[in-house]
Design a protein that fits this description.
The protein has 200 residues and is an alpha/beta fold. Helix content is 34%, strand content 20%. α5 (167-179) crosses α6.
Length: 200
């Protein structure tokens, strides 16, 4: 494995987080943890404050930890959703993201989570992507970003960004392949029966 066990993956939650942005990767990564316990993977969620988090489409969830008291994190996944907009220009969020970037081995985002990374300066001079409807905003936040509008996800080593919503599943499977092996990623993909063939 690129990062030896234990491999600790934290998923950030916040008011207005898009459900599939985090639940899709959670399904992939938690399936990895459950079905291959010897791989030493731990997956957990973190919310800004204690208590229920109201997601974008109405789901309410309770995170495992708060942002103020996070356990060690090797990989951080920051999802998107309408809740990312109020976090832009928020110095507390910027500081928290930068602090995680100093200690985590890989910073990942789904959808407009990349806006938060850009606002914190993590994407300066890097290739990155986001939801198609927010590509212009991503460029406005940091003109040095190399926007990749057609990529499902962009792996730039210690930072990995993905396009919108369901693209987070692809990115999470890529993480499994990168951090363990393509065979392991295929086993998980088969278990969750993820084989996109759009019906419309």
């Amino acid at each position: 494995m690129e990062i030896g066990p234990p491999l600790r993956i934290g998923i950030a939650l916040f008011e207005g987080v898009e459900e599939l942005d985090w639940v899709g990767p959670w399904e992939v990564l938690a399936s990895w943890r459950r079905h291959f316990p010897d791989d030493g993977v731990d997956v957990f969620t973190l919310s800004r404050e204690q208590g229920l988090v109201d997601c974008a489409k109405g789901a309410r969830v309770l995170a495992d930890h708060t942002w103020d008291d996070p356990p060690p994190i090797d990989v951080l996944l920051f999802p998107g959703g309408r809740g990312t907009r109020p976090m832009l220009n928020d110095e507390t969020v910027r500081a928290w993201v930068r602090d995680r970037a100093e200690t985590a081995r890989i910073m990942t985002s789904v959808c407009t989570g990349s806006l938060v990374y850009a606002d914190a300066g993590l994407l300066a001079g890097r290739p990155a992507t986001t939801h198609w409807a927010s590509l212009d905003l991503l460029a406005q936040l940091d003109p040095t970003i190399e926007i990749r509008p057609d990529d499902r996800f962009v792996d730039d080593g210690d930072v990995v960004t993905s396009a919108g919503v369901s693209a987070g599943i692809d990115m999470a499977l890529h993480l499994v392949a990168r951090l363990h092996s393509p065979d392991r990623a295929r086993e998980i993909r088969r278990y969750i029966q993820y084989d996109p063939q759009p019906p419309v």
